[in-house]
């Protein structure tokens, strides 16, 4: 029996509250702006990845949600990510002759998402983060998450942020080789444990414009885009980090909603236009603003990635207030308990 090594890991979905949209280098996945995300709790949406390497394997193989990806060798991003991880192992082996030369062995990878893939729920982020963290563990690399984030970024830009929990920034960097384009922790989840997220799945189908082709169309054709990357986002990046460190929910929420709107505006300003939000998404936007107006303060924020599904951020203390209204709007759908039907809802409906 040949010698084998195995590793297993889970990585959570991260949802950007300050969006990455646009690449200045498509090969290295270098962004045109810095971004910020909140990595959801591990128990919710996540990818679980296991890997095995063995001297007798004859090729790299990947199974995604139970089906083998037979195009693996044609996936430039995946092969680039694996090559970078193997290179790190090779460097380690060169320094320590007692190490088995597993950098030359092929790897089998099994990856499972517990949520719809490619439906604007950041599946590629969790997927590539899990793959990088898992293979790094398999190859016994000593690199920290920020170092690994530079490899995960090459698989899918937003994946670099999923290597951390909590509040994470992806610093765009300035160098053309990508050595300073990396994810860093702004604050761990424990810093602001009262922050909660709720995902409203408006449609779980695969999106029809991938984020890669969507963002490059925006870069090429949108007039709004230049203002967004040079003026709007750099200022928002600093403000949002401060709002997180200060636990200023109202400011965090306002910046999050404005940034989602700004990103979708550049999509609409692309030519031909890209529509990720649908009528249900717009209904959610209106509802959130109505709820905040009803309470006279911002208690909930929405954000939409490259798809119609809404992610709502709120503080735990406001969960019942928020769910009352979400229930009122979507109670005809399955899966609700009829526990949110109080006086507040009646007042709101009369408004
Ligand atoms: O990482 P990608 O290539 O799937 O792009 C992600 C783009 C957004 O989700 C819309 C924004 C973001 O920062 O995650």
TrEMBL record:
It catalyses: (R)-5-diphosphomevalonate + ATP = isopentenyl diphosphate + ADP + phosphate + CO2. Residues 11-182 form the Diphosphomevalonate decarboxylase-like N-terminal domain. Its EC number is 4.1.1.33. GO terms for biological process: ergosterol biosynthetic process; isopentenyl diphosphate biosynthetic process, mevalonate pathway. Keywords: ATP-binding, Lipid biosynthesis, Lipid metabolism, Lyase, Nucleotide-binding, Steroid biosynthesis, Steroid metabolism, Sterol biosynthesis, Sterol metabolism. It is an enzyme of class 4 (lyase). GO terms for cellular component: cytosol. One of its GO terms (molecular function) is ATP binding. Pathway: Isoprenoid biosynthesis; isopentenyl diphosphate biosynthesis via mevalonate pathway; isopentenyl diphosphate from (R)-mevalonate: step 3/3. It comes from the Eukaryota. Residues 198-351 form the Mvd1 C-terminal domain. Belongs to the diphosphomevalonate decarboxylase family. NCBIfam families: mevDPdecarb. This is Diphosphomevalonate decarboxylase. It comes from Hanseniaspora guilliermondii.
């Amino acid at each position: 029996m040949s010698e084998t090594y195995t590793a297993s890991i889970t990585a959570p979905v991260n949802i950007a509250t300050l969006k990455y949209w646009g690449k200045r280098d498509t090969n290295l996945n270098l962004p045109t702006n810095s971004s910020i995300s909140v990595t959801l709790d591990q128990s919710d949406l996540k990818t679980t990845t296991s890997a095995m390497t063995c001297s007798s394997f004859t090729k790299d193989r990947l199974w995604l949600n139970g089906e083998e990806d037979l195009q693996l060798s044609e996936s430039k991003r995946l092969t680039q990510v694996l090559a970078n991880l193997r290179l790190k192992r090779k460097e380690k082996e060169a320094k320590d002759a007692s190490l088995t030369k597993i950098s030359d062995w092929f790897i089998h990878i099994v990856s499972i998402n517990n949520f719809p893939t490619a439906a604007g729920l950041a599946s590629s982020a969790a997927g590539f983060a899990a793959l990088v963290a898992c293979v790094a563990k398999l190859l016994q690399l000593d690199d920290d998450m920020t170092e690994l984030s530079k490899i995960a970024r090459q698989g899918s830009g937003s994946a670099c942020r999923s290597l951390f929990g909590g509040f994470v920034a992806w610093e765009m960097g300035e160098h053309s080789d990508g050595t300073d384009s990396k994810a860093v922790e702004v604050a761990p989840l424990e810093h602001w444990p009262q922050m909660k997220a709720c995902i409203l799945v408006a449609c779980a189908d695969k999106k029809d414009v991938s984020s890669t082709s969507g963002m490059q169309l925006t870069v090429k054709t949108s007039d709004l885009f230049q203002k967004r990357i040079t003026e709007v986002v750099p200022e928002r990046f600093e403000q949002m980090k401060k709002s997180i460190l200060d636990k200023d929910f109202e400011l965090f929420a306002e910046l999050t909603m404005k940034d989602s709107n700004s990103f979708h505006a550049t999509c609409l300003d692309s030519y031909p236009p890209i529509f990720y939000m649908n009528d249900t998404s717009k209904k959610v936007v209106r509802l959130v603003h109505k709820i905040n107006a009803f309470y006279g303060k911002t208690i909930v924020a929405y954000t939409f990635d490259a798809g119609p599904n809404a992610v709502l951020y709120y503080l735990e203390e406001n969960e019942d207030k928020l769910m009352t209204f979400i229930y009122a709007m979507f109670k005809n759908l399955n899966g609700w308990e009829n526990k949110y039907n109080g006086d507040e809802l009646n007042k709101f409906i009369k408004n």
